[in-house]
């Protein structure tokens, strides 16, 4: 019975994720090239066969031979053995000689340095991918900030009308945390790029020539095109997973900001408020023909919750390492892949929603016209107590439109229509007071 079959008996059978196979095959090829560089272990035809097999594995031509789930004990040893056995068998069938899965395919290697390196490759690639999606979300919010800079709305604190604001300023506020998410993810790339390759079992490099270690790193950078760098503390790189807990912290904040943003829009698109309109994308009910649902917002929030749960699992996995190794790396990898999938879909949905979201300018103006927010905006001009008096008249006969609000203010304040219009100008209501004179 092969080691792969033993692992399948212990952990069950499941298709190993395609991206895991690909990343690990990159590591194996880099190691193989380094071995050949330092000792010319194989004849040129044998070496070509091995490279061809690893390329085919990387390209997905033999995925059916990778039958192990990521949920497994042994710190990833079973995944390493599966790859070694598959590559050795395929190469042996073609080369007319037997390749040993360990002596040939695992030379100068341990699961602990090679699997760790494969996880780093995946984590870095997924981080770059998600960073691009966060940037797309941020840029879409900023474009809406500019597009809606002229539309007034009631800003609310604690669900109560507070002061006027522009819809553009609302989008600018939403873009703020996303800008920080973008910055955080960019900084995390530096944390993630360190690799353990060459450290062998416990980071000491036992059994591996120094020339091999440097050559393997060189080949891996060239093969992947990633700015990977050998850790300056290989024992630490193998023993600890806190860099993934830190990465999960960045992802968790993206998810929190998605959830918070979607929550704001759920309120603003709700039937009683209706200042924004969620696109009608599908039937809202099997019974109620006129029912529509904010399906994208709910989808985003559900995925955001899933991401936060996976991030917490990574923290638990990180703290569960003991002594010279963290055996829970396969589980942490599974969490990272789930996060990537869920967060990617949530960010795509956010951009799609922004393309389809309708800002209902007339509703916003009507709400602002009979809102206390408009009265509050008069405090700098009239003073606190005078506004209270105006508010009493406001509440006794609430304006039903922007023009009726202007008429009421003209009557209460003894101002002309032009003066009231200047008072309620968008710029006047939503920015700093004009200075009496230019500041020194």
- Multimeric state: single chain
> Within the CATH hierarchy, at the fold level, what is the topology of the largest domain?
Fumarase C, Chain A, domain 2
Task: Give the full name of the CATH homologous superfamily of the largest domain.
Answer: Fumarase/aspartase (Central domain)
Helix content: 55-70%
Task: Round the mean pLDDT to the nearest integer and report it.
Answer: 92
For the report, how would you describe the main beta sheet?
2 strands, antiparallel
Which consecutive residue ranges, at least 5 long each, have pLDDT under 50? none
Helices and strands, in order, run as: HHHHHEEHEHEHHEHHEHHHHHHH
Q: Which structural class is indicated by helix and strand composition?
A: mainly alpha
Output the radius of gyration: 30 Å
Shape: elongated
Strand percent estimate? under 5%
Q: How many strand elements?
A: 6
**CATH architecture annotation of the largest domain:** Up-down Bundle
């Amino acid at each position: 019975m092969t080691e792969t079959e033993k692992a399948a008996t212990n952990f069950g059978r499941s298709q190993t994720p395609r991206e895991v196979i690909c990343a690990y095959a990159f590591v194996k090829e880099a190691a193989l090239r380094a071995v050949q560089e330092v000792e010319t272990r194989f004849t040129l035809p044998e070496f070509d066969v091995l490279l061809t097999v690893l390329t085919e594995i990387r390209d997905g031509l033999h995925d059916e031979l990778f039958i192990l789930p990521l949920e497994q004990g042994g710190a990833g040893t079973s995944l390493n053995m599966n790859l070694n056995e598959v590559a050795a068998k395929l190469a042996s069938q073609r080369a007319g000689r037997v390749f040993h899965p360990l002596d040939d395919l695992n030379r100068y290697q341990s699961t602990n340095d090679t699997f760790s390196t494969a996880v780093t490759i995946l984590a870095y690639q997924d981080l770059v991918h998600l960073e691009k999606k966060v940037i797309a979300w941020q840029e879409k919010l900023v474009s809406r900030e500019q597009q809606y800079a002229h539309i007034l709305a009631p800003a609310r604190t604690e669900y109560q009308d507070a002061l006027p604001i522009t819809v553009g300023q609302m989008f600018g506020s939403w873009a703020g945390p996303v800008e920080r998410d973008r910055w955080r993810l960019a900084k995390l790339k530096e944390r993630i790029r360190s690799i353990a390759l060459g450290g062998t079992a416990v980071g000491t490099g036992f059994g591996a020539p120094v020339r091999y270690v440097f050559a393997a790193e060189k080949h891996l950078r060239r093969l992947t095109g990633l700015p990977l760098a050998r850790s300056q503390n290989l024992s630490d790189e193998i023993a600890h997973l806190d860099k993934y807990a830190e990465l999960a912290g960045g992802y968790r904040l993206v998810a929190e900001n998605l959830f918070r943003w979607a929550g704001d829009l759920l309120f603003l698109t709700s039937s009683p408020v209706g200042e924004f309109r969620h696109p009608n994308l599908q039937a809202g009910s099997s019974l109620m023909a006129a029912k529509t649902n904010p399906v994208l917002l709910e989808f985003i929030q559900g995925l955001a919750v899933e991401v936060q749960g996976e991030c917490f699992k990574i923290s638990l996995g990180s703290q569960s390492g003991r002594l010279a190794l963290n055996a829970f790396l396969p589980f942490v990898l599974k969490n990272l892949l789930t996060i990537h999938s869920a967060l990617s879909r949530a960010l795509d949905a956010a951009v799609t929603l922004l393309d389809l979201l309708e800002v209902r300018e007339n509703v916003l103006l009507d709400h602002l016209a009979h809102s206390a927010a408009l009265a509050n905006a008069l405090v700098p001009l009239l003073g606190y107590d005078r506004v209270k008096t105006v508010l009493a008249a406001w509440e006794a006969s609430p304006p039903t439109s922007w023009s009726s609000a202007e008429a009421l203010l003209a009557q209460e304040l003894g101002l002309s229509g032009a003066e009231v219009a200047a008072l309620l100008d968008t710029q006047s209501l939503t920015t700093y007071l004009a200075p009496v004179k230019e500041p020194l």
